[in-house]
Sequence to fold (435 residues):
Amino acid sequence: MRKYYDQITRISGNVVTVTATGIGYDELAIVTGTSGTSLASVIRMEGDQVSLQVFAGTQGVSTGDRVRFLGRPMQVPFSDDLLGRIFDGAGRPRDGRPDLEAERVDIGGPPVNPTKRRRPDRMIRTGIPMIDIFNSLVESQKLPIFSVPGEPYNELLARVGLQTNADVIILGGMGLRHDDYLRFRRTFEEGGAGGRTILFIHTAADPVVECLLVPDLCLAVAESFALQGKRVLALLTDMTAFADALKEIAITMEQIPSNRGYPGDLYTQLARRYEKAVDLDGAGSVTLLACTTMPGDDVTHPVPDNTGYITEGQFYLRSGWIEPFGSLSRLKQQVNGDTRDDHRSIMDACIQLYALCRESREKRDMGFEMSAWDAKLLKYGDLFETHIMDLAVNIPLEEALDRCWDILARCFDPAETGIRRTIIESHWPKQPTAA
Fold:
């Protein structure tokens, strides 16, 4: 039993500073006073001055309260009984059901040793053509969705979760509006995935410190399931809210700010979470898909800018669809050669022709004379956007490839596509859909 410390020297925001020795970073503590007890976690140590982040906030905490350190970091219960449950950012039940009595695992541990990782080589099918064809999602990949507030990125995350064949889906919501939380919950339950889903939800009304815990809770549970051989899909939204929580705490701690007020270790904080994505040799995997909103649609903002150096590509969600230019899955080449022999040819040809279509649209909008080739490109662009790019399209990969062939045949002669003759002879539609 650790002794009590009662020399609280400072209270600032949600942070209290106590004089103590023999304490470790991230160690958990209990603050006890007249207002009750609160959990806290060590976030800074300077000599014998230990700063703790109080989960429920410091309202009611006084300098006469006592602090007892538990000698361990924050933990989360782990068992199969987690499936179908909903928790808050401190790991407490949010679904009205009792606490889970199970073995507890530490959160915030180091990433898996690289020597224990498999080379990513298995595609995750989502039913979304703009992902499956053009930027295939690979098992154990870490990918962000770059977007702006108002875009349907949460709907996209939920849809990917529902339509993949993951054994376990773990959603971490940070700074969610209550209606977004309810929408996630309803989507998974109505989609029949409630029994393989775990939700850790921090809403905008919850204490800011709990926002920082959500990714670590999700990824600790994900890693534990992966060690059991499960294929885990972790969905995090919104990592910008996570970074803003980091900034708020850094300001409280009077740290010297870096770019736009964010702490200087923002890259490290983000990388600690993203690097949890792993395909374990001889066990399961953790695939990480996270949303990052860009204030003002500014990709140079510190959060998306740092994220881009950590992850293996990104999806840009704009105007309600996944933007084909700028979106990138750096691991797609490791899987799309094993799907169908025309996959890469269709991927290259469709994007090249769509780029030419955009040039033709600029010519049209500027009043230049349009050629017969421009007319073909404009027709192709409209069909491609309606039948492939629209996020409402929900078809398997093979059907999506066939649909691309049909669109090409409705707009171009075979020689105009730039696709190799041998591929065209095998896949060119004998009777394309009528225009």
